[in-house]
Queue: 4 jobs
Job 1
Amino acid sequence: MIPPPSLFEWLRPDAATRVDSAGIFDYMDGAGELYLGYRFDHLEAFIYKAANRPDILLETYFMKSSDDAFGLLSQDWGGEPAVLNDTVPPAPACRTAPESRALYGAGLLRAWSGDLYLRIMADVDTPESRAAVLELGRLLVRGRPEKPRPDLLGALPRTACGGNPDPQSVRFFRSRHVMNSVYFVSYRNILRLSPSVDAVTATYGIPCGPGEIRRCPVFILRYPDEGSAVNALAEFHAAYFPEHGAEKPRGRAAAERGIKEDIVRLYPVEGGWAGYRLHGRFGVLVFECRDLDSGTCVIQDILRSIQTWEANPHE
Amino acid sequence: MSEKIYTRRDFIRGTLGAAAGAAVLGNAKWNPDGAVNAAAPSRVVLVRNEKVLDGKNKVDASALRQMLDETVIKFTGRGDAVAGWKSLVKPGETVGLVATPHLNPTHEELIDAVMASLVAAGIPKKSILDGQGGPDRPKACTVLIALPALKAHWLTGIGTVLKNYITFSGNPEAYHDENNIKLGEIWNLPFVKGKTRLVIVDALVPLCDKGPQPDPRYKWPYKGLIAGNDPVAVETVCLKIIMEKRRLIKGGPWPLSPPPVCVEAADKTYKLGTSNPENIRIEKSGWLQDALV
């Protein structure tokens, strides 16, 4: 993908600034963890310049999968949806997450297209720079075969315990840094997140009484195998619920670290009830539920959703 | 005995280091009338000027210089800016200006204005250094003027005053993750401690969310300078402004995540100043609309 050498009055230099994973911290002030937390390959940056016009920075992030590029966009669903490509695949079966593939706001266009994540930003948001930013996005994306969203989104239930998800809260991620930027759990990697783990989150508004809605973040984590999931949840249990002791070995998969697959673990903690459940290579986590019944209800609805989705995968 | 792993629960309980959750959750007890309870509160000066930026956020250097003068006069209590700067920095001293180079960087116009002010106060230009960088920078200076820009940070919650000295440690990576709670200790390094005569926060166009790259949707023309010599008090006021702006954007509480645990730790653990709003006196001047504190 070669960006156009000119765009209206704007011109770019011949060569891009190329940044790989070793150089990303120098490029962005030590916070390259966001991109490395997904499967980042490299990025290419150009600055388009025009006389008496704001500079336009084009950053193209080459990710190792379209899921990673989607995950970056899912960091923030704010902004005005923009359509850059007329080859978007059919609407996904699961509508939990927003369907936008490109979002524009205040001079910044963010988009995912296959394994690319784009950030195109004008120094100043003017009608001319907006037109140029959007046109550049269209030129870069047009004709590219689009990929489906991460399949794991399909595991999020349409409702949980009678509550709807906030579409703006849906994220796909793989790292603790991203998880903590969404919902701080621990600075340590107590859920053993890694590039080989897929994770989705959404916050559900659970009805708790007349006119009362309680916002409960839920997480679905898919590990490479059942043993990885067991170990991760055991570590989470030990770190997050230390007063409840270590899990005792139960069941086949949990023999080594001991989490029985069919048991929901929920505990009253600061800010509400929190807990988890293992399901094969999946871990389901809930936070800030009102009580034991509510937490159990949410987890069971998520579990049913995962089972339905496993039987008939979509997204 | 296994090492304690801190979690969200510790943070809410107020046992994550010294940090309690109230301030960063936006529930800190600020007196609505600005009254303070301490006998000797930390003073934080806030000066704003509606005309310091044009519609495209371009800085009017003249207006900014006036704001800076007013900030120094107000903070030092001297009759003019030159006298104010002279009370802060003496001839023969070497001054390091410690600006923020990345992610919503300090405006060059502010750095230039501070430098011009120091020169006007009799400090030779050759004695005014770029203080940002590794430990050799503060070691070369007898005085530091911190010039961070107001911003939230993707990894540390807030990345303004305390984080501005992270490179002085010579090992910034050592302050990542949970160790960001220790940012205050850098201010107590022998070659840093006691050198900061003034913190002036560039709050012209703050950034209230996101990173690691700036998102213009979360920048706004606040048009302010925030100053004091208590870095924790200044940071606490900065945090209040960011939290209020976030609340306005979302229409309700929008906590920073991860929480900026370094602020209260800088108070309770490293004794750098106060993070208790009741011990902070904010002295406002100029444009007051939407001051958020």
Job 2
Amino acid sequence: MKQINPVLCRHSVLAIVAVASGLVLGQNKAGSGATTDIPGAQPNIHLVAPVADGQWTMPAGDYGNTRYSPLDQINTTNIHNLHVVGEVSTGVLHGHEGSPLVVGDTLYVVTPFPDKLMAIDLTKPGLPVKWTFNPNPDNRAVGVACCDVVNRGASYADGNIIYNTLDDHTVAVDANTGKLAWETQVGDVSKGETMTMAPVVVNNIVLVGNSGGELGVRGKLVALDAHSGKILWTAYSTGPDSDVRIGPDFHPYYAKDRGTDLGVSTWNPDQWKMGGGTVWGWISYDPELNLIYYGTGNPGVWNADLRPGDNKWSVTIWARNPETGMAKWAYQIEPHDGFDYDEIMENVLVDMPWHGQMRKLLIHPGRTGFVFVLDRETGELLSAQTFEPVTWAKGFDLKTGKVEINPDKQTHYGQTTRDICPSSTGAKEFVPSSFSPKTGYLYIPAHNTCMDFEGEQVNYIAGTPYIGARVRMYPGPGGYQGEFIAWDVATEKKVWSIKDGSFPIYSGVLTTGGDVAFYGTMDGWFRAVDDRTGKILWQFKTASGIVGNPMTFVGPDGKQYVAIYSGIGGWMGAVALPWISTDDPYSGLGTVGAMRGIKAATTPGSMLYVFSE
Amino acid sequence: MAALAATPLRVCADPNNLPYSNRQQQGFENKIVELIARDMGTHATYYWYPQRGSFFKQTLGSGVCDLVMSVPSTMPSLAVTQPYYRSSYVFISRRDRNLHIQSIEDPQLRKLKIGVHVLGDEDASLPPVRALIRHGLVRNLVGFSIFGTLDETNPPADLIKAVEDRKVDVAVAWGPLAGYFSRHSSVPLVVVPIPDDPANPELPFQFSIAIGVREKDRALQQTLNTELIRLHPEIQRILRTYGIPAMTLPSEAARSMEN
């Protein structure tokens, strides 16, 4: 029998029982550490895929991207006892986005560039590192990454930990030995392409996407064979239907998204080849419909005057078959984006009553400031309600699916446009929300930041003088900058929120069966909140600002743990890094104006924290 | 002066951006830096970084190097020397096409494919390109990324190559790029400065070019100014060698009027 030194345990007896019965995790659950059985869930709320119940094997914990775990050892009655039981430093002082994985009795961390994979032993005292895998990525990737050199995590499949490196390789590393199983080059860093997103593995197919819309990269989703790494298909976000993988099965709900080769005809000649629409966010999967869902980023180039037309398929939500990559439907949220509103946000999949009828919902809290609710079978827009101040649009027509733009807020070169809300960083960034089937609420980490698109000045790049517009970001109306929101999906309304006066909420969210929602702040507080009332039940000041996603797992000792990264960075958070000056409000792509206080509030960090009660 | 002379000139430059600079120091800016350094009794060291969105932040901003050649003299957030040349946006076309395009308002342009550089995430507009858009020609534009790929030699040359290969009828580019690459063309090309557009007087097509330093580095700025004045004739000779279309600097015009 394997000997376990019960470090993380106070109840070592439990651990021994667990080992003796051949179960390392979740004492009374299946060995997969996942379940669709949600005790206490509201009647008629059905989650489409098993949620994380002991292990955490994919970026969101579950295919439905609920980030809900039924674990309830840590709950509202004992949360005040929560304390640090382990800390690990990755040694990299850049933004720590995403979250670790837990598979069996090992916790896996992917660091920011150079994208090392650390395997941490949960059975030994002090959380020792078992091994570290170094992919040795191409250093040039650092120079082309737009917004800090981040990595948003990994997936576990087929005995391997699978993740992307900033220099566009997908790597599969043996979860036991730390040896490279396979490696596939998926993009070309020399073209400005990078990879930061966390892969999702569906039916032994690894799904990955690219970043770099800012440099005229052509967005794409790529499918690889989980056993060999061989590329199975590529679905581009721009170009002819054959490249976009649109065929006879493509049935967009709205007329505005129908037509042949719209990925070409909605662009200036050849401009789609550098049209952006990158795929750097989260991927969801519905096993019943066998469809994957994801969103695409902003169109390139940034100067919207140069690309008249709808610029399909940027800023679009996609439904595709995972085996073939062929599209089932697409819904373009915003045609001809001029605000950098990537809509790569998470798509949360829930079956629940909608206006009296059971519907298969896709819930997408958007960078554009709206919570979009779609029927995920058809792509019909059921609701689009704002969750933060929005001025760029007046609303969405559910009959046509079209946005009603506010013409006063359109930007044009040669004129100043003030009070565009939200700013380019969005009413919410890529940091993912969480849905609790017990409350029926979506917990949204939100921003309230507006911007002016003002003046013009001479600038210079790559040997060429030009006239550039200046973007300045600042806190939006209401005197707060961040907001942690409980959003009632059924009534399409905010129920309660916790406002942060100084900084956006830039961390992901975790909800649990213990009726607690976890999130972090950019100045380093890790919080547990009563998920029904919004009362802050517990908080702990970590060493650095939090831009990662909380996760939870059951240790070898049978106890529940919660883990979070603490390491400021990312687009907005990078203002805290020492080489960004806060003297110029237009630097950091305009974010400095909104983030001026961050340097005083926190310093760079590289920590993983593990908590228990 | 003696203290500065002992210190090497720490130059921030793109390792792959001819005709300005490359790692082999074959660009005209490399030659001008070498000239200045030698005159100061020192030598130049380089911090190489591709000129992309974060160039100024990662170079001058982080303190790893002290000067950037070829910045527009009206660029904010920097201290700049006096300008040492002035150039213009130009039209480039094949000589055998006999286009003779005279201005942004030339009616021929409505029927032509016009190649232009696009700058990716620089929320940017090249002034003549913006003028073309205002004249209703956006559908005639074909964009070429000025950044190209990191592995490619001289990415901005793609646009000029497209003119050679008849992929576009005419290109609009910044003078130094156009002048240098058209000299290396396999077919004869015509390079014509674009006159100011009366319909868009606020869009400059000509820029005076200076050396940029950090705002607080006034001593270095002064030293470089002195060198630029002293070395003016030799600098102009280097520019001519590289085919840089150079206009009269406003300061030179003023000086000759005084004379």
Job 3
Amino acid sequence: MTLNDIWFAAIAVLFTGYFVLEGFDFGVGALLPYLPKEERERQVMIGAIGPGWDGDEVWLIAAGGVLLAAFPEWCATLFSGFYLPLLLILLALIVRGVAFEYRGKHNGRRWRRNWDRCLFWGSVVPAFLWGVVVGNIVRGIALDEKHEFVGTFWDLLNPFALLGGLTTLALFVTHGAVFLALKTRGRIRRKAKGVAEKSGVVAAVLAIAFLTWAQAMEGSFASVLLTVVAIGAWAAGMVANFFGREGRAFLGSAAALGAATISLFAALYPDVLPSTVGSENGLDIENAASTPKTLQIMTWVAVVFLPLVLLYQSWTYWAFRRRIGVRNVPASH
Amino acid sequence: MDALDLARWQFGVTTVYHFLFVPLTIGLGVFVAGLQTAWYRTGKEHYLTLTKFFGKLFLINFAMGVVTGIVQEFQFGMNWSEYSIFVGDVFGAPLALEALLAFFLESTFLGLWIFGWDKLPKKLHLATIWAAVIGSNLSAYFILAANAWMKHPVGYEVVDGKARMTDLWAVLTNSTALAQVPHVVAGSFVVAGGFVLAVAGYRILRERNATGLIPRKKDFSDVTMPMRREVDMWRAALRGALVMTALAGAIVALTGDMSGQLLHTQQPMKLAAAEGLRHDTAGAPFSPVPGIEVPNMLSLLAAHDPNATIQGIDDIQQRLVAQFGPGDYVPNLPIVYMSFRVMIVFGMATVGLAFLGLFLTRGRGRRARPVPTWFARLCVLALPLPIAAIISGWLLSEIGRQPWTVQGELLTAASVSPGVSLTEVAISLGLFTLVYGVLAVAEAVLLIRHVKAGPDEPMPAVAPDETDRRVPTLMY
């Protein structure tokens, strides 16, 4: 196992952490217009992800920084090639982040309604587009001999990638609903459970189609095994949700998302961005990587600090581990 | 007009916009943490009121800093892919360190602080805000070390047209970074100080208006008038900000002097452009404002020797052509010249205001002098000064580095993404400008509304279950 392998795995871990954590934040945002009947229920939903969402999003910032440090060519080609999807994701994350902080700081109907729209679109757009991006990474894009993307925006919207987008959207919505069922009480909890029952099935169908297609294109033994694990965990999580075992349901959906993400990275390995025009134009863990010196230093940093991050981030969720309901909403709001 | 021009505009617009919020986050965060510490130690109610009041302003500002920061990181790969490939091996490490060491700390613990009021034990809750602001300040160090490397690259070698790191320690202890980090961080404290001065000054004026304490004719006659508790509270906030601004201002001046000397040896073109010095000159003069010239002053400032030779623009240009081949190696002179002066004059004015205020409001206990009404007005009016100064500092620093992205190694023109079209950059520049403009209005509305409204009334009684410490306090 070389340093390049380790850092490919590190990127996979960071994106897995990001999708597992911000996945349910996106899901909650996407369900915001549908579950609550009144303002206090909306505050319960937002309060459920309130303390954690920003920390969850740092997984993306860390993934971006590590990508630049460990695989500069991958970062450069990926970000400049997926220009418009990433632009939309960034804009969505901007309005969403501000919406969390601003919606409650002024008491006006229109003010809140507009920020709620930002929360909804700011969650749905990235939930869909991350699937499109991941789909295209696995499938490969048109790269010339200098590893520059030579396709257009419309090439990125191929059927496989669009299926990927729908898959992540459905998975995240379900993941968010399962999380809400675990973290809230009262009507929101019941409605979230009901949503997860239905969307969980839709997500399962989409995910099986998408992952099977991906494995058929790029799969290895390990990645196929992980796909099976992902589907199994998802099924177990949905059964647990059906029987109202919310903790297990959330573990199931989190494990499934994690296994699915890693299975896609495993299918990609040892490529990092295949080319659809001439396989020699593609980027892999060797020709896209930094020098061993940088990778070595980064390894030490990650070994020391990533567990620490996991520790205090888990503690945040532990500190606020009880369910919240409308009776926790202060009367002044 | 090509993609390069628009990509540069986009970087300029998004960076300046991002940097409107960052200094406030860095400085105000520490100020709020300080207020909460004062409350924890003394138990005095007005410190808690101030903590929550400025804490709210801090959060309104913080959100904008965070979301506009993500753009900065992704922009390198999106618009500047050739730059990313060239520098990734060196430049990426501090960026990754920033995320792993600083951003996780900042975001996670700020979430705990926001939602942990009355839930976490008091001491632990105080620790969360300190952890968050330590994260903010740590992030400043890493990103400024990365930025310093662009101006004065160290600890690397170029192999196959890419920079390769040879010494991370050299990158992290770059002399340019060691001068720049305290300069920018202390500058951020001056900005935050100026912000608190304006807010406290406004609240003082407002309380006095409401209580008829502002006399119609003689402004200073209020010195003998009895003061209300609220005015006392804002005086405390104002005094705190005065101390912070004065101390930070001294550090800014000191490290600014260090930076000037480093420019002399590391970036002579930027120094020459800042002064508009055309030719190599022994005993070069300095003009603080156009028209006035202090002989030998630039040599004294930059080299600590009144007769030292300072290199001039035209002569450096000739030497660079001889070294790197034909090209224009001169940055935009009017902008660099003007921003240098705006930085110094406005920055000094803010720090001067702080020292004046410390003198005017001297004394403790019964002999404490109240804030003169005219000074409170001055504080409100001075709000734009430190912001203009710190933004000008960045314009000087970054535009003065042109035409290079990495001094002496990589030209800006060679850094841009070759595959990204003019249309794509135009779309993104347009959308960012639009969204940023709308958000700026929202932020300004919220800040003004909260400053006008003043501190919240104490929270109404809550349902019994609200006391369950394991439920977050609903703050959004």
Job 4
Amino acid sequence: MDPAITAGALPATTATPARNPGQSLDTAMFEGIRVNRPAAEKRAAAFGARRSVKKLHQAAWLVNAVRLIDLTTLAGDDTAGRVRRLCAKARVPIAPRIADGLGIADMGLRVGAVCVYPTMVHHAAAALDGSGIPVASVATGFPAGLMPLHLRLQEIEWAVAQGAAEIDIVITRAHVLSGDWPALHDEIAAMRAACGPAHLKAILATGELGTLTRVYAASMVAMQAGADFIKTSTGKEGVNATLPVSLTMVRALRDYGAATGHRIGFKPAGGIKSAKEAIQWQVLMKEELGRDWLEPDLFRFGASSMLADIERQLEHHVTGRYAASHRHATS
Amino acid sequence: MQITEILSTMEYGPAPEDRSVATDWLAGHDAGFGHFIGGAFGDPGDGFAVTNPATGAEIARVAQGSGADVDRAVAAARAAQPGWWALGCHGRARHLYALARHVQQRARFLAVLETLDSGKPIRESRDIDVPLVARHFYHHAGWAEILEDTFSGARPWGVCGQVIPWNFPLLMLSWKVAPALAAGNTVVLKPAEYTPLTALAFAEIARECGLPDGVLNIVTGDGTTGAALVRHEDVDKVAFTGSTDVGRQIRRATAGTGKGLTLELGGKSPFIVFEDADLDAAVEGVVDAIWFNQGQVCCAGSRVLVAESVEARFVDRLTARMGKLVTGDPLDKNTDLGAIVHPDQLARIRALVEQGRSEGAGIVQGTAPEGCFYPPTIALDVQPASVLATEEIFGPVVTVTSFRSPQDAVALANNTAYGLAASIWSETVTQAMDVAGQVKAGVVWVNGTNLFDAGAPFGGYRESGFGREGGRVGMRAYLRDDAREGSGAAPPAPDATPAARGPGGIDRTAKLFIGGKQTRPDGGHVYSVGDGAGLAGLGNRKDIRNAVEAASKAAPWGRTTGHNRAQILYYLGENLSARAAEFAGRLETMGAAAEAAHAEVETAIRRCFWYGAQADKVDGAVHATVSGHVTLGMVEPLGVMGVVCPQAAPLAGLLSLVLPAIAMGNRVVAVPSQSAPLAATDLYQVMETSDLPAGVVNIVTGPRDELARILAQHDGVDGMFYVGAEARMIQTESAGNLKQVWCEADGARDWAGPDGQGRGFLDRATQIKTVWVPYGA
């Protein structure tokens, strides 16, 4: 066994090379790439049918999912108290008795990050102080992004100054819908510059882009503009994270990596609620990209209620009895 | 193992399917299985062992069917058939519906049993095979219900003898049994020697849901049992799925017996990837094409043809994808490839791959455990001459060959004796549909592969067999066709020596008509016809060869519009009409009474109009199959047809067979009435003045059965109509390339009367291509 694990640390994340520096727009990397939707849907459906994790392995995969969660609250009624509650859950995502039962009490299980609105960043940063859990902030006029660019860039800088280590930006969908790739590239590049040391996750709002072919193109432009992660959705679109969209994005990410050598992260977000989905998305990452993309430096779930379902499944694994959420701490 | 360990590797771990219901069932039958005849299981006798290929362990013993067993089963089916038919449409529909329901209720048991018996992954038997079985019975419960409304007046064959393969044991049973029963037939089915268990389980299920005794009979055994069944004189219709070699044997064994026959045989199906394809989608397509059921699939896309411009990228991705495949325990839910069905089959795959390697193919393989397993394999740089490109491997081995242009791709795709299926990958509908039309295959999947549905006809072109399963055309194959009993004896041998007298007048020597030209017979002989009516060319095998070559070159005829073909058929009628008196006179010199001669010419003119009318009206279909898919049924000509004409009604008889063939786009080599060919030879001028393109109709006069034999043997002839006494010889000889043949004796119908025309002739001159197009923006 890996000594680092017995010592209670997390499995070592992969050695992270330099951040994706981005590059100038290169439309040849995506023009001519057409994504066949029925084929993508068929492949996406196969992840659940072709791969199955049972018993102890299932528990392990669910524990891993917890590590990948960007535990999120993005609501109009968010308050300091609400954010503190979320952060408390982030520090102790599953009840100690369950962690004990799973034999992972000393591994220091925590979520990947806490994700909030900019004005909530300092509450979150304070509540997470010393935990090592980064604060992610949405920015750039989330969720629609239809604000003047200079204000969106200022918002990023403000959120970073508040303590956000990760910025989830939204793109101007109109640039994709009109095929204005230079405008999309320049906008995201400017945001990346505004992030400074903070990592940039580019939310493509795929539910509003219409076709998977555009999803592929937008993914590629975002990576060329320097995104550290590409992310499906704000959670506010009519259609949020789906497996076919995710498949398209991770294939773009794979192709970008093959062309440039840079490893980009992926974050599906919105509508992912069940433990079963947590497994399916991890299967997708492992099958399409490999084991490295099951680590929080390269894969996150944007989710809030999924954690509750995972906790119930894990308790069932420990006790053999079906669990009820009211017996678990709420986030 | 602890969770922390798993977290470091993130392996999937074991996910075994529960096998207990199936193993309990097998334990309950540890005395062995007898045949299921007349509603009861017989004595197992000595029998033979059935093994689980994944472990090599014996899991059951089944009886070896003897000729006497087949006799008893056929007798039981015969006895049950009148009662089954008497149940009526609704009565049979209720039984088929019950079978569908019971298959669904026993789905997991059947899936596990299938996997134990065949070695296929549980994911496939659970998610693909068994759901398709249930769907097949539901669909055919529907056909049973509306049989009389749809096929008014049609009658079943009677007793069907069916032989099925080991690759999809229960699914192939359903494809055979459901339409047979829906049409009112009773069945004797022989499952494959390697995989008889789900058929026996199905027999129990049929008994459980009250299927009347004798309607379904299962006789287990090896090839000798199957041979006894297909040769049985009281079997009316034979349906076979399996190898092309055995298909040929069955074609010969049933020749001249009048038995209905459909054959679903082998394939070497192309998988064409254009540069504008979604390459990732195409890579996943290969997984579903050749690594489905370990590649033991008759319609497997086993030849990847990829545009040279994307070949390197495609191969890289395909290789990477292959590396993710898991070969192993078929009962584990994470297994992608299970066991090869039998060590003999494994040895064959190994030998073929080694031969391919020695021919220069680059072999790239995944991994497989010890035992009866073979790793997923890609063979690179495979040239069309390689054994890997020509032989059906029936294993998880895909070849990769590059092409330069769409024309090149089509040429490579069609460079095979087979014609079962094709996959075409392109995001451009213009290109994909063009190539779909050009590939010689009974099933074409555009941006997809191995898509099946009970409502979509499935079956092959060329040496992949004939007949379709599924949908309306599949039902039609289980209803008796309208070939009738005849009496005609063979005409006397033609006499090439000078006759006692001739016709007088200015000499008109009838030549042959080949490639639009009147040509002298190769042998340089003529023979006397019609008791001094004249002389006709004595055609020989070289004339047939030349005629077939001319017909092959006239391929554009098949691509012209029905409207264009109709115009020419009407024009034929018009020109025939202008010379009606002359033709009537000719028929009189060959022995027809004046009134009959005029009537026959009038019929011939009408035939031109009737088939001209049909030329643009034999529509295809859009089948109701799976949501998100357009499934087209395209009606295509067979290609080059040999048409051997009746002795009587020498004008109307010839046109009654030639016109439906050419109306559908076939090109014809016709052998006219041997004893009265001069009405046919007079047609040369009519055809020439009617703008019929050269080579569409070729006429070779001479010894009927000798010429017919050469046509039947010719690998470039795709189909035949034969009227005469030698059906057995013709059907036997046709086994060489398994051309589709329709035979009837002389005198079975009045070719100058209404029986001489009908939709049936058009159906027999065509084949159905099923084209699947999944869609989604």
